Amino acid sequence: MCGIVGYIGDGNAKDIIIDGLKRLEYRGYDSAGIAVHKDGNLVVRKHIGRISNLEDMIQGENLDSPVGIGHTRWATHGAPSDINAHPHSSRDGRIAVVHNGIIENYVKLKQWLRENHNIEFKSETDTEVIAQLIGVFYDGDLLDAVYKAVDMMEGAYAIGVIAADEPDKIVAVRRDAPLIVGLGNNCNFIASDIPALLKHVRKIYLIENNETVVITKNSAKILNEERKEVKRDVFNVTWDADAAEKEGYDHFMLKEIHEQPKGIYETLMRRLDENDSIKLDGITLTKEELDKINKIYIVACGTAYHAGLVGKYAIEKFAKIPVEVDVASEFRYRDPFVDENTLFIAVSQSGETLDTLAALREAKSKGARILSVVNVVGSSVARESDDVFYTWAGPEIAVASTKAYTTQLICMYLIALYMAVLKGSITEDYYKFVMDELKALPEKLEELLKKEKDIEEIAKSQYKRECVFFIGRGSDVGVSYEGSLKLKEISYINSFAIAAGELKHGTIALIEQGTLVIALATQDKLYDKMLSNIQEVKARGAYVIGLAKESNKEIEAQANDVIYIPDCADEVTPILAVVPLQILAYYIAKLRGCDIDKPKNLAKSVTVE
Ligand code: M6R
Q1: Exposed/middle/buried for residue 209 (C-beta within 10 Å: 0-12, 13-18, 19+)
Q2: Which atom of ligand 1 is nearest to the CA of 405?
Q3: Span from the CA of 549 to the centroid of ligand 1 (angstroms)
Q4: Which run of H or E residues covers position 88?
Q5: Which of 11, 339, 419, 471 is the most buried (most CB within 10 A)?
Q6: Model pLDDT for residues 388-402, shown as the tens digit of each residue
């Protein structure tokens, strides 16, 4: 997804911006560009493809300047190309704009600019409309021109703007797309994401919706829609810059897989007191409020949706409240029944996924209470929720989500147990049993990660497959979906997950000699049923990799290969079961020579519909 970096100060804007853009590469992009002040003019350079293409293009050119803006683009309006790459300029080239998000009324604005100002457009983008609008309103006051342009714009966006005639400032606006200001010494920054600035600053302002920012070398002002200055507390970033680097692993994905015991430990232990009672920081839901809740929706996209599927199991089992799980892009358009007795749980790593945000707003407008499970502190989903429960996974850089998923699961269990205690629907003994199982997970996960080499060996024998099925029952169904998504998104193998009991209702027709089936059989109470399902697919020629608990050895007689997870209660198997599937997907993708951290066509944070 698009990234913005802007700099003004004593340093060399070009180098600082390009470095910042590189730290946003994980968001996914198809072109990159930069605009800097130079001798009273603006110089814009942009190139399709990787940032290195842009660097090659400007190599040897003197673009040293104390102020500039840069961008990585992920195409929405108009194909990836040099022309469509950002920054975009006004007709006279004296205004340059970078933009994340979408201008919904850009067609109307384009027509208005053509008819009233004879503007000829060079690109197919909505962003050029912003640059041209600001250009026609500009009469020596950039801030005023930006306000006038923004007044006409509809949509969700963040923009950064510079003007050739005002080399002392950058103006930026946030409306429904992330924007931050970095506060340095004799320099200030704008950016779409914190990692872009970590090398230079720790103090930031989180910009709110409909706010405009003016940064100069020595000041950073935030203004509201009425152009009045608003005060903002400084947010101190505590992440270590190294946390956003690979730390010796070949890929961020593998590093993040290995960070899961720590992420789980942090997410869990920070919420338990000395008696193992749950203290849900950020959640103020009382017993009286919970008693009124008669329906829970868990709404999310992709991997976060899969975490929701496991959340349903946990909440219904422990708290005895009916839960519906929905993908956000469906929820927002299906007019679901929601009222003030509904609890809406949004799950999102980035907290910026547009569909999740829109579904949240839809539920909020109908009176639901909004609780979110989010990884990125201060993100839009977090800010718009009544209660926020943070996963403590740390920054997740690889597009394929791993540690965010397992920490989301921990949050789901904690929320479910918390509700169960409030409602009195769980006995003390059972609560203690489940809590002990959860607390044992970080260590069991460490143990499981030691099997990485064995799983790599399995990958070596399977990486040429072109079609894979994942099957499971109970909470293994959600994990099968997640295992399948992991495999397809990074290895591009056609992979499909289905509840094992559904096989014979159609899908089994596709099983033939040599089809790879990954059978999750981690649930004790459904184990025998799964063994029967394995027999069914084996009888039709499938090659089966089974996944089971260490003590359940009968599976060896059925499956061709078996991966064991440490023994644990059925209630918590999803957190362990997903990890071998992540590792298997990783090594299969590696053996197939895929771009693991940045799979084709995918972005880390999907801030468009
Ligand atoms: O940031 P979010 O959790 O809201 O993102 C939702 C999905 O786009 C995301 O989980 C996606 O499916 C994963 N990157 C896949 O690994």
Answers
A1: middle
A2: 10
A3: 28
A4: strand 88-89
A5: 471
A6: 998 988 778 899 999
What string of DSSP letters covers 339-405? -TTEEEEEEESSS--HHHHHHHHHHHHTT-EEEEEESSTT-HHHHT-SEEEE-------SSS-SHHH
What's the pLDDT score for residue 244? 53
Q: Specify the residue for token string 């409309």.
A: 129
Which atom of ligand 1 approaches the CA of 486 most closely?
A: 16
Question: Per mean pLDDT, which range of 189-193, 375-379, 470-474 is the poorest?
Answer: 375-379
pLDDT tens readout for residues 245-297: 666 788 999 999 999 998 999 899 889 988 999 988 778 888 999 999 999 99
**DSSP symbol at 176:** B
Q: What is the pTM of this model?
A: 0.74
CA dist., res. 581 & res. 4, Å (int):
34
Q: How far apart are CA 476 and CA 346, in angstroms?
A: 22
User: Is the peptide bond prior to 87 cis by the omega test (within 30 degrees of 0)?
Assistant: yes
Report the distance separating Cα 91 and Cα 128, nearest Å. Answer: 10
For the cut 80, the answer to whether the pLDDT of residue 155 exceeds it is yes
* Local confidence band at 434 (pLDDT 50, 70, 90 cut-offs): very high
Strand ranges in 491-609 using DSSP code E only, listed in sequence order: 494-499, 516-521, 543-549, 561-565
* Tokens 């509809």 sit on residue: 154
- Token pair 């959640």 is found at 283
Catalytic residue numbers, as ranges = 2, 604
Residues with CB under 6 A from ligand 1: 301-304, 348-350, 353, 356, 399-401, 485, 489, 605-606
Please give the structure tokens belonging to residue 489: 């998104």
Q: Whose CA is nearest to atom 16 of ligand 1?
A: 400
Question: What gap in Å lies between CA 96 and CA 158, rounded to an integer?
Answer: 14
Tokens read off for 312: 């349903």
